[in-house]
Predict the structure.
Amino acid sequence: DIVMTQSPDSLAVSLGERATINCKSSQSVLNSSNNKNYLGWFQQRPGQPPKLLIYWSSTRESGVPDRFSGSGSGTDFTLTISSLQAEDVAVYYCQQFYSTPHTFGQGTKLEIK
Amino acid sequence: EVQVVESGGGLVQPGGSLRLSCAASGFTFSNHWMSWVRQAPGKGLEWVAIIKKDGSEKNYVDSVKGRFTISRDNTKNSLYLEMNSLRAEDTAVYFCARVGTTTGWGEDVWGKGTTVTVSS
């Protein structure tokens, strides 16, 4: 199974500042046949189901604010929130879709400083 | 409105069985792979199982193989998770999720979840 490891486990950022979350996979999730990284990012607010933010490592899902961006390739990925808003307080998860089981990272809890 | 709604959770004794259901509406159910994802109390997300659009292909996380069975009925727009030989560590909120057709296998529609508690 592919192991997904996120860092940090928790993060406190001031409103309007940048938040950066990292995700590392134990093996590459890049499909060389289509040059796509099978990696997504989810946001889970307290008491809510997860919400897909990013897929193909860097493509924003429809309706997701452009302050959210994803980057990376192969085994190393980053989710960046360019200017933190109060509603961004949540736990963020990366997930690989390269092979089953489609494993998640352990989550990163994002709070306001 | 595009939505999925889970049901069937509850309290069950260790070794018992439970069948979860997920009712889909607002989209063409048979066009989508579907997944189950669970979340133990205070813990992270764990992918459990996935089923192909026509039900011909299924995959599971190792911890549930041989105990859980994912299935679907496209005539009823419904997804199921049959859970047998339940253990305390299966206690979780179980989410039904639609796999998007353009989201690189990302689950783009989620239900609110149904709670399964395995305890004597």
